[in-house]
Design brief:
The complex is a heterodimer of chains A (about 575) and B (about 200). Chain A has about 575 residues and is mostly helical. Chain A has helices at about 5-30, 40-55, 65-85, 105-115, 125, 130-160, 170-195, 225-230, 255-275, 280-310, 310-315, 330-345, 360-370, 380-400, 415-440, 440-445, 455-465, 480-510, 530-545, 545-565; strands at about 205-210, 215-220, 320, 405, 410. Chain A has a domain at about 25-210 and about 215-250. Helices cover about 65% and strands about 5% of the residues of chain A. In chain A, strands 1-2 form a two-stranded antiparallel ribbon. A two-stranded antiparallel sheet of chain A has the order 4-5. In chain A, α10 (about 280-310) crosses α12 (about 330-345) and α15 (about 415-440) runs antiparallel to α17. Chain A is globular, with a radius of gyration of 23 Å. Chain A starts with a helix and ends with a helix. The relative contact order of chain A is 0.12. Chain B has 2 domains: about 1-40; about 45-195, no CATH class. Chain B is about 50% helix and about 10% strand. Chain B has 7 helices and 5 strands; from the N terminus they run ααββαββαααβα. Chain B has helices spanning about 1-40, 40-45, 95-110, 135-140, 145-150, 155-165, 180-195; strands at about 45-50, 55, 120, 135, 180. In chain B, the strands form 2 sheets. Chain B has a two-stranded antiparallel sheet. A two-stranded antiparallel ribbon of chain B has the order 4-5. In chain B, a hairpin with a 2-residue loop joins β1 (about 45-50) and β2. The chains are: A mainly alpha (about 575), B mainly alpha (about 200). Chains A and B meet through α1, α2, α3, α6 and α7 of A and α1, β2, α3, β3 and β4 of B.
C-alpha cells in the first residue's frame, strides 16, 4: 500500500461527502415536484410526454397502482429489448454485421438490463450492433435507474406523509428524474469522456497496421454516451467485453475517478434527500455514516490483499502486488477501490478482473453484494434496501428495550416488519438455492474456468451478482449457455421485483399511518449508537447467512493460496 | 387491480416509444454529432496516422513481442491484443495454469537479466488485454536488451525511457507509466538518428 493510494481513497471519500448535500437537495426538488432551472429547457418535453401518453402527473397513486404501473412499464421495456436483440441482424446501424442474439441470450440480456443488473453473458464488441447498444440497452440504463430512484421516493413518502392514501405518481417521478437529473448530467459527462479519449462514432471498426507490421482491428462505436449513464445509473453494462478496464471505455486515471464518483453520487445524495423528506437531515447522515464505515472497511481489506500480492507468483520471481487482470494506468489502489465501489453500489462495471483478485481481495466484492448492496447501493435500490434494514434495526432495538418501535415518526408494527423480512430473505434464499443447484448439476459444473474452491467462487459470485442485480462477474465462468442464461435471468427478475413489491407495500402501509412524535422514551435514530446498531444488523442479518458459502469458496481459496496449493 | 393494469397500458406503451426515441436515438445521435464537432480526434479513437496509414491509437495497446522493441504485457484478448475481443485471463490466485504461464515467462525474462526480480506487470495479463502501458520498472528492465540488439548506448536508451514516463496527475491520480507505442516510436526515431 502506498501514500498515493490512500490519498486517492481519501480524496474520493472527501468529494463524495461534499457531493451529498448538493445532489441531495437537487433530488429533493424532484421528489417534491418543484421547479428547477432545467425546467426552462426540458419542461416542454415533460409536458408533451404527459399529454401524448394521457398521464395526469398530479394523480396520487396508491402503492398498488404505483407498483402495477411500474411493473407493466418495465415488462414492456424488457419485451421491446428482447425483440430488438432477436431482430438485430435485420435492423440498421449494424456496421459490424452482427447476427441476431439467440433466444436464451436475448432473454437473459433483456432481463439483465431491465432489472438494472447488466450482467453480460456476451462480449459487447463481438455481439452487439451500434443500434442494440444505443436503443435496446441504453434506454434501460436510464429507465431502470430512474425506476430505482422513483421507488426510493415512494418509500420516502411513506415515511414522510401522514394518514395518506397515495405514495406519489410513478410516471411523474420517472419522467422528472430522467429529464432533470440523468439526461442533463449524462450530456455533460459524455462530453468530458469524449474529450478524455472515449470514442463516440457510428463506425464499427478501425484497421491498424502496427509498428511490428501486424494488423490489428479495433472495435469502436458510440461508447461515450453509453459510458456516461452506465456509471451514473449504476448499471454497469460495458460497451466492450472488458468493461471499464478497456482503454476506450476508461482511458485515464481521471476518467476512472469520475466513473467511481458517478457510481456513488446519486446514492450518496439520496441519503440526504431522505433526511430532508422526513424533516431531519441528521437521519440521513446517520445512514450515510453506517454506509461509509462498511465501505471503508471493505476498501481496506481489498487494497491490503491486492497490494500484498499473490505468494504463489512471488515464488516464481515475479515481484510486487497482484497485477493479474489489472491495468497499469490504474494500478493496485484504483483497481481495488473501483472493485469495492462497484459492488457496494449495484453497478457492476469493472476496471479490473475480479476473478483474478487474490482470494480475500475478491471476497469483499462478493460480500458487498451479499449484504444486499446497501453500502451506498444502486441508485434508489441502495437506500430502499437500507431502510428495510433500518426497520429491522428499530424492531430489534424495540425488543431489547420493550417498547413499540418507531422510526422517523412512524410506528413500526407487525405488518412492516414481516414485509421487510420477506424482502430481505429473498436474497439469501435465491442466491444460495440457485448456487447449490448449479454446484451439483452437470450443466452448472460445466461453467467454471478455474478449478478447486475458486471454481465454486465463480458459481457463487454469478448468482450473487445476478440476484443482487450487480452484474459484475468472476468472468471465467462460461455463462452463455441455456442453463446459466435461463437460471441467472430468473434470478435477476426475482432479485429485482420480489424485493420491490414488499418494499412498496411497506411504503403504502407507512403512508397511511399517523405521525407519532418522538418522546423521551423513543429510541434515538441519529447518533453513533444507532449507526453502530445499523452496521450490526446489516452484518448479522445480511452477511452471516452467507458465511458458510464464503468458507467453501474464497476462504478455502485463501488458505490454499498461502500454502501454495494449486488446482 | 384490473383497473390498475388497464390504466397503465396507454402510458406504458406511449412512454416506451417516447423514451426510446429520446434516450435510445436522439441522445446518442446528438452526442455523436457534438463529439465529432468538438473533439473529432478523440471521438474517432485517438488514432495515430503516419504516411497516410493508421499505425495505432494513442489510448489502446498493440502487441510488441520482438526483442527489437520494448515488449508489452502478455494479453488474454484473443491471441493477443485482439481489438475485437477484449478480455482478461480470469485465472484465479490458485490456478495451476496461471502459475505455469508466469513461471515460463518469468523464466525467459530472468535468463536475460539474471538475479533481478521481474516486474509483476511484465508477466501478468491486464484486465482488457489491450493495456497500452507498462510500468517504468518494466521499461527500465528491458533497457539493456534493447541497447544490445539495436547497437545503442545503454545510457541513451535509459534517458529515452526517463523522458517517456508519464507521471500521475496531481501526484496521486493514476500510476507512473510508459505508453509502449509512444516509447517504441521514439526508439525508432533514436535508432534512425544514431544510424551512420
Amino acid at each position: 500500500m502506498t501514500v498515493q493510494g490512500w490519498l486517492l481513497i481519501a480524496v474520493f471519500v472527501g468529494i463524495l461527502l461534499a457531493l451529498a448535500k448538493p445532489v441531495g437537495l437537487w433530488l429533493f426538488a424532484l421528489y417534491e415536484g418543484r421547479r428547477t432551472p432545467l425546467h426552462a429547457v426540458f419542461g416542454p418535453v415533460e409536458r408533451s410526454f404527459y399529454r401524448l401518453s394521457g398521464i395526469n402527473p398530479e394523480e396520487d397513486q396508491t402503492w398498488r397502482r404505483y407498483a402495477v404501473h411500474m411493473l407493466v412499464f418495465n415488462a414492456l421495456l424488457i419485451l421491446m429489448t428482447y425483440g430488438l436483440l432477436r431482430a438485430q441482424a435485420l435492423l440498421p446501424l449494424n456496421p459490424q454485421g452482427h447476427a441476431a442474439l439467440g433466444e436464451h441470450l436475448a432473454f437473459n440480456t433483456a432481463i439483465s438490463f431491465g432489472s438494472n443488473t447488466n450482467w453480460q453473458s456476451y462480449g459487447g464488441e463481438s455481439t452487439m450492433s451500434n443500434l442494440s447498444q444505443m436503443l435496446a440497452l441504453t434506454i434501460h440504463n436510464f429507465l431502470s435507474a430512474a425506476t430505482g430512484i422513483a421507488l426510493a421516493f415512494a418509500l420516502f413518502r411513506g415515511f414522510a406523509r401522514r394518514s395518506a392514501a397515495g405514495i406519489g405518481n410513478f410516471w411523474a417521478d420517472v419522467t422528472r428524474i430522467t429529464l432533470y437529473l440523468l439526461l442533463p448530467l449524462c450530456i455533460v459527462l459524455t462530453v468530458f469522456y469524449i474529450a478524455s479519449g472515449v470514442p463516440q462514432t457510428l463506425a464499427g471498426t478501425i484497421d491498424v497496421s502496427t509498428l511490428e507490421g501486424a494488423r490489428q482491428t479495433l472495435a469502436i462505436g458510440p461508447v461515450a454516451s453509453q459510458e456516461a449513464i452506465k456509471l451514473l445509473g449504476t448499471n454497469g453494462g460495458g460497451f466492450f467485453n472488458a468493461n471499464s478496464a478497456h482503454p476506450f471505455e476508461n482511458p485515464t486515471a481521471l476518467t476512472n475517478l469520475v466513473q467511481m464518483l458517478s457510481i456513488f453520487a446519486i446514492g450518496v445524495g439520496l441519503t440526504y434527500t431522505f433526511g430532508k423528506a422526513v424533516g431531519n437531515t441528521r437521519q440521513g447522515w446517520a445512514i450515510l455514516a453506517a454506509m461509509m464505515a462498511l465501505f471503508l472497511a471493505g476498501t481496506t481489506v481489498t487494497y491490503w490483499q491486492e497490494a500484498a500480492g499473490n505468494p504463489v507468483l512471488h515464488q516464481l520471481n515475479a515481484a510486487g502486488g497482484n497485477m493479474e487482470g489489472k491495468e497499469v494506468r490504474f494500478g493496485i489502489a484504483a483497481s481495488a477501490l473501483f472493485s469495492v465501489v462497484t459492488t457496494a453500489a449495484s453497478c457492476g462495471a469493472v476496471n479490473a478482473m475480479h476473478d483474478s483478485f487474490t482470494a480475500l481481495g475478491g471476497m469483499i466484492p462478493l460480500f458487498n453484494m451479499q449484504l444486499g448492496e446497501v453500502v451506498i447501493g444502486g441508485v434508489g435500490a441502495g437506500i430502499y434496501g437500507f431502510l428495510l434494514f433500518a426497520i429491522l434495526a428499530v424492531f430489534v432495538a424495540g425488543l431489547m428495550v420493550g417498547r413499540t418501535p418507531e422510526y422517523v415518526g412512524k410506528k413500526i408494527e407487525s405488518r412492516e416488519v414481516k414485509l421487510a423480512v420477506l424482502a430481505i430473505a429473498v436474497l439469501p434464499l435465491t442466491i444460495l438455492g440457485m448456487s447449490a443447484v448449479a454446484s451439483v448439476l452437470p450443466a452448472g459444473l460445466a461453467g467454471p474456468l478455474n478449478k478447486g474452491p475458486h471454481g465454486f467462487s465463480e458459481i457463487l459470485y454469478a448468482f450473487t451478482s445476478a440476484v443482487a442485480n450487480n452484474g459484475s462477474a468472476f468472468a471465467g465462468l462460461s455463462a452463455n449457455t441455456p442453463f446459466y442464461n435461463g437460471l441467472l435471468g430468473v434470478g435477476m427478475w426475482i432479485g429485482r421485483f420480489f424485493i420491490i413489491i414488499p418494499m412498496l407495500a411497506v411504503a403504502g402501509s407507512l403512508a397511511a399511518k399517523k405521525y407519532t412524535p418522538a418522546t423521551a422514551g423513543s429510541f434515538p435514530t441519529t447518533g453513533p449508537l444507532w449507526t453502530g446498531l445499523l452496521i450490526g444488523i446489516v452484518l448479522i442479518v445480511g452477511g452471516l447467512t452467507f458465511l458458510p458459502s464464503l468458507a467453501l469458496g474464497p476462504i478455502a481459496d485463501h488458505i490454499a493460496m498461502i500454502r501454495g496449493q494449486l488446482f | 387491480m384490473n383497473n390498475d393494469i388497464v390504466s397503465s397500458l396507454r402510458p406504458a406503451l406511449v412512454m416506451t416509444l417516447l423514451f426510446g426515441l429520446l434516450l435510445g436515438l436522439l441522445y446518442p445521435m446528438a452526442m455523436t454529432g457534438l463529439g465529432q464537432a468538438l473533439f473529432p480526434a478523440q471521438a474517432n479513437g485517438s488514432l495515430i496516422v503516419e504516411n497516410g496509414k493508421v499505425i495505432g491509437s494513442s489510448v489502446v495497446g498493440q502487441a510488441f513481442t520482438s526483442e527489437r522493441y520494448f515488449n508489452t504485457r502478455p494479453s488474454a484478448a484473443g491471441s493477443g491484443y485482439d481489438g475485437l475481443a477484449s478480455s482478461g485471463s480470469n485465472l484465479g490466485p490458485t490456478s495451476q495454469v496461471l502459475s505455469d504461464r508466469v513461471k515460463e515467462q518469468a523464466g525467459a525474462m530472468a535468463a536475460a537479466q539474471p538475479g533481478r526480480p521481474v516486474p509483476a506487470d511484465l508477466v501478468t495479463t491486464s484486465g482488457s488485454g489491450l493495456d497500452p502501458h507498462i510500468t517504468p520498472e518494466a521499461a527500465f528492465y528491458q533497457v539493456e536488451r534493447i541497447a544490445r540488439v539495436r547497437g545503442l548506448e545503454v545510457e541513451a536508451v535509459r534517458r529515452l525511457v526517463g523522458r517517456t514516463i508519464e507521471q500521475p496527475l496531481l501526484g496521486f491520480l493514476g500510476e507512473p507509466r510508459v505508453n509502449v507505442l509512444d516509447l517504441n516510436r521514439r526508439l525508432d526515431a533514436l535508432s534512425a538518428r544514431s544510424a551512420p
